[in-house]
């Protein structure tokens, strides 16, 4: 236990010897965790280190296989999130738990048992919500439907939901991953206001800089075990990184400044526009040219047209205007087959649902785009030996770790699924690659290898359009950075002139 | 109770679960029989005898199993890729219309030509009928469950119209009694499909055709580029679009394929058994709906469809031939439904690991 | 000629008369679907309701209103009992909702349990001992135009209007109604907010069964007061389609049901007026119109996320990675 807990002061949260097992994984292995009242306590670890599992146990979503939990000194046993909420514990999930078609007000009061069965008029509920929002300076429109809100606004609704229920202990899971730097600063401000009122914040993250800025103490998890708990004041990012990864880490590998000046343009976007799923314009007059060997990054907050842009280029979505030009010729609109044939590889953001067909085997997914052509198929008949040979070769070349080529792809880890996608895309000898959030949700090791593969491809003369919501990734890899806001390119900056503050403002829609 | 997803399914379970659900269904249906005041043991004994034991039982079971094999394959072909064609019933009617039309039209040709024409007619008519929901699904994203089902009723009314309310090509108008009591035109003898006598049973030509179709369907999904596209589309539509698969074309083609199979089932019913377009008989049999049961029990595996079609064909054949006060209509449907329920419940054991553990009472502190 | 005999008034009144079972069945399906459960067994549940309600009127004695009330309730409860199977399979055991619903229709429908019960109890060919008849409300039945349409219908018609109002108020003005919408839209969210997803899904699937049974009872007690095998002839499927046309909204479901009531009655009304077409043409109208309307709503503007509960048809599993 932490020796610095002042005598007599009862910790807000005390979790002891928590163990949780999933099929094939020991997610939490005898974890001890304590948070004091009124502190921001960061929970640091790589993806898969067990942070989210621990947080889910604390909120009653999962039940631990062993161990116990005390809240303000009282032993509790949560069977559901409702129990946790009754004890004042609430969580803001990384993937927001909001019902998209319901209004902000309905989402905030949802499940609140103290509400009368016959509901007050919508207006009364809305004015309550407005008052609460004003108190914490988190403006939202209570009558808006969730799907109409930006990501930052949705997060505010999540936090207001917890406050509405009088949560005293708030768990935030990777809360800044979808925010602009400025929005993140606003969030930290709100958190300080909340701790000043005596609330306790458990802040789950793997970003070192923001932990240093916001937290009082940090508990580091690795491989399901606690590595240690330290005072933020008395530690440094490199020390935390060492604790998190278990070895020295080279901070953010980056592409060497490119030397392919004057490389030919391999992929050119000329004024392309496209509509989103709801029929609203999502991509608006985007023009960019990507040269061979160049990595062009597209930075922006999630939901500003990135996914639609990637799909409009690869043909999965019809363009309402503009041309995609590869080697001087325009791609057929809305025809992925043409894009594939012309050498446009695509690493989609939804890797398990789109990048691979999840129930099909690894071998089948490796021929997803080549299944019509020789040598894989002749006269419409699949050649099974060739499929097997292809799988064997690509799995070893890209070090895909899977029980075998016949394993359903959904059973692979995120990093290995991404390797399957990259193996298939890179082995097709593309002219250009459109990569959308290629490392999201991957652990440090997998992130490193994915980035290496992209850098190597660029070095081999492929043009890469890297669309990423992780600004650090764009800054590390891209030769030029374009910022997308509401479907438009707000500005393009070469990497050596890039400045986080300025890019952040552009991401938030401020004029460059 | 704790339920966790299985990473792998043991092989023995794949066989054990359907067998166990069969037994459980008969046990549960026994309760229904007891409530109705029947002796389940005697009922089942008579059913089993009439299905598989009595002289000629296997032969008539095979005749009943043939359309079930086709509608089962039709459902399996579509369901396998999560295309919910439940219009097998109507597609089978249309197949019967097409096949009997072809048989009547080609009446003066040699038998081989007539039979080929009947198979082709049934196939084309079934495929055309199922292409309607297929096209609507592909181009307007219209729910194929509802549209394919609505067309079953329309197809049934079309049968009635052809024989009872019109002077159609299919209706017998030559005799006085046929004008008073409407009935279909009898097909020529040359349109009767051949049979193969193996001693223990007589195998109808349609059943052999069905086995070939099962093999073809298995090869289609396993070894053709187009079958691969259907598998991808069924598993993940967005991955299919991403891979450049023409999703609309695959949907229309697969619906047509499914309808064609059901249509040949209708043709076999005419060629092997009825030799006349008989609206009442076709509608009472309900082969299209039973095909869904067959496909689901077979877990969409074409070879398993053949086995299940034989078993349920026996059940249907026995139920039909025993029908009367002791065996009211509806008993077979009850049994089929029960079997399917238990098989669905059993799926859980295949996909998830289920363990029971007592919840420990919270220790008093 | 009396204006109340004009074809428009007769058609409007019979549209309501024939549309009413669809209102019950579709409202039941709407509740189930709003909680995220697709139940394709409506046809089977309606037939179960039809046969058990008819059995009840033949075996119970007492004043008309009491027998009819009890019979309708028995029909509803029998269908509810059948819907328990679907609920256990899809909510409890996470079976495929489409296949389970189809199984339910095969089990309970025209070739299954409802036929078995009807044949064992020898209900075929008997005239009903009690039936729903039109009530002259406040003596207003003869009021021009509105009289036959609004004030001369049977008790279940009036009950169906109350049902729509109750369903509207329930979904939008009660806490449980809000919870249902959340469970159908995002069970993860509902679960985190302390709502018992499985319990809501069970409850609304069973409510759907109850209402489908009442809709079925309407066939055997009001439309053709007798029992024949498969007497709902696809009304259950039309009810499922109706929920889609109505974008999962109770008030539009009512309007849609009357539209289909109109198609169902068109044949009878026109034949009575000496319009000669093959009967199959009229009989196939409701089915063909279902297809046409479904195509119309699934295309263009209407497709854009109007109403469909986002989690419809998908099982909810909490502890899974």
Give your account of this protein's structure.
The complex is a heterotrimer of chains A (about 500), B (about 375) and C (about 325). With about 500 residues, chain A is an alpha/beta fold. Chain A has two domains: about 15-245, P-loop containing nucleotide triphosphate hydrolases (Rossmann fold); about 265-345 and about 430-505, Rossmann fold (3-Layer(aba) Sandwich), CATH 3.40.50. Helices cover about 30% and strands about 25% of the residues of chain A. Chain A is built from 17 helices and 22 strands. In chain A, the strands form five sheets. Chain A has a six-stranded mixed beta sheet, sandwiched between helices. Chain A is globular and about 70 Å long. The termini of chain A are far apart. In chain B, strand 2 (about 195) and strand 3 (about 200-205) form a beta hairpin. Chain B starts with a strand and ends in a 10-residue tail after the last strand. In chain B, strands 1-4 form a two-stranded antiparallel sheet. Chain B has helices at about 10-35, 40-55, 55-80, 90-105, 110-140, 145-165, 175-180, 205-225, 225-235, 235-240, 245-275, 280-285, 285-295, 300-320, 330-350; strands at about 1-5, 195, 200-205, 350-355. Helices cover about 70% and strands about 5% of the residues of chain B. In chain B, helix 5 packs across helix 6 (about 145-165). Chain B is mainly alpha-helical. Chain C has one domain (about 5-305): ABC transporter involved in vitamin B12 uptake, BtuC. Chain C is globular. Chain C starts with 6 loop residues before the first helix and ends in a 23-residue tail after the last helix. The interface between B and C is large, with 52 and 55 residues.
């Amino acid at each position: 236990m932490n020796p610095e807990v002042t005598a007599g002061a009862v910790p807000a949260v005390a979790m002891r010897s928590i163990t949780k097992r999933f099929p094939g994984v020991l997610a939490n292995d005898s974890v001890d965790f304590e948070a004091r009242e009124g502190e921001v306590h960061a929970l640091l670890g790589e993806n898969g280190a067990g942070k989210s599992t621990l947080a889910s146990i604390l909120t009653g979503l999962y039940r631990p296989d062993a161990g116990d939990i005390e809240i303000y000194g009282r032993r509790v046993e949560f069977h559901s999130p409702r129990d946790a909420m009754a004890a004042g514990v609430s969580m803001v999930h990384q993937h927001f738990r909001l019902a998209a078609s319901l209004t902000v007000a309905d989402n905030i009061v949802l499940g609140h048992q103290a509400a009368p069965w016959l509901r007050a008029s919508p207006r009364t509920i809305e004015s309550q919500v407005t008052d609460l929002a004003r108190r914490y300076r988190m403006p939202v429109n209570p009558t808006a439907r969730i799907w109409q809100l930006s990501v930052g606004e949705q997060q505010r609704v999540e936090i207001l939901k917890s406050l509405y229920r009088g949560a005293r202990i708030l768990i935030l899971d990777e809360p800044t991953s979808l925010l602009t730097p400025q929005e993140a600063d606003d969030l930290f401000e709100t958190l300080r206001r909340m701790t000043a009122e005596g609330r306790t914040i458990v802040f789950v993250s793997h970003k070192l800089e923001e932990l240093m800025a916001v937290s009082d103490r940090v508990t580091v998890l690795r491989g399901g075990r606690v590595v240690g708990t330290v005072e933020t004041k008395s530690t440094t990012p490199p020390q935390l990184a060492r604790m998190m990864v278990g070895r020295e880490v080279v901070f953010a590998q980056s592409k060497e400044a490119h030397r392919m000046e004057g490389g030919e343009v391999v992929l050119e976007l000329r004024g392309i526009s496209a509509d989103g799923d709801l029929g609203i314009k999502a991509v608006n007059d985007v023009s960019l040219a990507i040269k061979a060997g160049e990595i062009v990054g597209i930075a922006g907050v999630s939901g500003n047209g990135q996914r639609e842009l990637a799909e409009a280029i690869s043909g999965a979505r019809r363009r309402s205007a503009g041309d995609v030009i590869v080697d001087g010729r325009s791609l057929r609109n809305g025809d992925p087959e043409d894009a594939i044939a012309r050498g446009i590889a695509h690493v989609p953001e939804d890797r398990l649902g789109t990048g691979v067909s999840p129930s099909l085997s690894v071998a089948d997914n490796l021929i997803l785009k080549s299944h019509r052509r020789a040598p894989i198929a002749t006269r419409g008949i699949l050649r099974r030996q060739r499929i097997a040979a292809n799988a064997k070769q690509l799995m070893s070349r890209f070090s895909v770790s899977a029980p075998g080529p016949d394993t359903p792809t959904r059973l692979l880890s995120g990093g290995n699924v991404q390797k399957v996608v990259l193996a298939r895309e890179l082995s097709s000898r593309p002219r250009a690659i459109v990569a959308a959030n290629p490392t999201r949700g991957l652990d440090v090791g997998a992130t490193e290898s994915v980035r290496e593969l992209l850098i190597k491809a660029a070095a081999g003369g492929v043009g890469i359009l890297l669309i990423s919501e992780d600004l650090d990734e764009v800054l590390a890899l891209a030769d030029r950075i374009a910022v997308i806001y509401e479907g438009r390119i707000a500005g393009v900056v070469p990497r050596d002139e890039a400045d986080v503050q300025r890019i952040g403002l552009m991401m938030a829609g401020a004029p460059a | 109770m704790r339920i966790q997803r299985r990473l792998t399914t043991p092989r023995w379970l794949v066989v054990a679960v359907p067998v166990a659900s069969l037994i459980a269904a008969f046990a549960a249906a026994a309760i229904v029989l007891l409530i109705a005041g029947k002796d389940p043991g005697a009922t089942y004994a008579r059913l089993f005898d009439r299905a598989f034991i009595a002289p000629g039982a296997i032969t008539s079971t095979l005749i009943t199993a043939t359309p079930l094999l086709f509608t089962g394959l039709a459902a399996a072909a579509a369901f396998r890729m999560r295309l919910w064609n439940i219009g097998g019933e109507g597609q089978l009617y249309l197949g019967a219309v097409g096949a009997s039309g072809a048989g009547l039209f080609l009446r003066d040709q040699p038998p081989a030509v007539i039979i080929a024409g009947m198979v082709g007619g049934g196939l084309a008519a079934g495929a055309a009928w199922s292409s309607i929901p297929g096209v609507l699904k592909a181009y307007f994203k219209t729910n194929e469950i509802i549209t394919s089902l609505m067309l079953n009723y329309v197809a049934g009314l079309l049968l009635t119209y052809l024989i009872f309310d019109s002077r159609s090509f299919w209706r017998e108008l030559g005799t006085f009694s046929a004008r008073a009591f409407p009935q279909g035109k009898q097909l020529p003898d040359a349109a009767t499909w051949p049979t193969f006598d193996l001693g223990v049973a007589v195998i109808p030509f349609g059943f052999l055709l069905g086995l070939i179709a099962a093999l073809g369907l298995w090869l289609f999904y396993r070894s053709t580029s187009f079958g691969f596209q259907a598998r991808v589309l069924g598993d993940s539509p967005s991955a299919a679009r991403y891979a450049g698969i023409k999703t609309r074309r695959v949907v229309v083609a697969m619906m047509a394929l499914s309808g064609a199979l059901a249509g040949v089932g209708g043709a076999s019913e005419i060629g092997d058994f009825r030799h006349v377009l008989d609206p009442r008989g076709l509608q009472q049999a309900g082969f299209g709906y039973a095909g869904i049961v067959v496909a689901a029990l077979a877990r969409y595996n074409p070879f398993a469809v053949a086995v299940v079609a034989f078993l349920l064909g026996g059940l249907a054949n026995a139920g039909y031939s025993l029908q009367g006060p002791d065996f009211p209509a509806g008993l077979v449907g009850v049994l089929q439904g029960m079997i399917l329920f238990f098989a669905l419940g059993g799926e859980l054991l295949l996909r998830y690991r289920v363990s029971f553990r007592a919840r420990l009472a919270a220790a008093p502190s | 000629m009396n204006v109340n005999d004009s074809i428009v008034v007769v058609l409007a009144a019979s549209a309501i008369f024939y549309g009413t079972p669809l209102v019950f069945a579709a409202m039941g399906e709407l509740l189930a679907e709003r909680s995220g459960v697709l139940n394709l067994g409506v046809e089977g549940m309606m037939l179960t309701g039809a046969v058990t309600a008819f059995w009840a009127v033949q075996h119970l004695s007492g004043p008309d209103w009491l027998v009819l009330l009890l019979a309708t309730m028995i029909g509803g409860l029998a269908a509810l009992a059948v819907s328990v199977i679907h609920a256990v399979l899809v909510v409890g055991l996470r079976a495929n909702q489409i296949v389970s619903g189809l199984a339910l229709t095969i089990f309970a429908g025209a070739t299954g349990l409802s036929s078995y019960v009807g044949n064992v109890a020898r209900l075929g060919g008997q005239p009903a001992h009690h039936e729903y008849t039109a009530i002259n409300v406040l003596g207003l039945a003869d009021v021009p135009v509105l009289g036959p349409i609004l004030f001369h219908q049977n008790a279940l018609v009036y009950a169906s209007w109350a049902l729509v109002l109750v369903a509207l108020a329930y979904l939008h003005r009660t806490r449980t109604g809000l919870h249902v919408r959340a469970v159908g839209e995002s069970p993860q969210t509902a679960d985190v907010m302390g709502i018992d997803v499985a319990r809501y899904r069970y409850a609304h699937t069973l409510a759907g069964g109850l209402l489908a049974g009442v809709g079925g009872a309407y066939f055997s007690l009001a439309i053709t007061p007798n029992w024949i095998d498969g007497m709902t002839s696809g009304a259950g499927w039309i009810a499922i389609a109706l929920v889609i046309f109505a974008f999962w909204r109770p008030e539009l479901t009512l309007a849609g049901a009357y539209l289909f009531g109109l198609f169902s009655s068109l044949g009878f009304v026109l034949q009575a007026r000496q319009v000669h077409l093959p009967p199959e043409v009229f009989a196939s109208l409701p089915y063909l119109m279902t297809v046409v309307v479904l195509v119309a709503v699934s295309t263009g503007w209407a497709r854009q996320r109007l109403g469909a509960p986002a989690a419809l048809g998908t099982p909810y599993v909490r502890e899974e990675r």
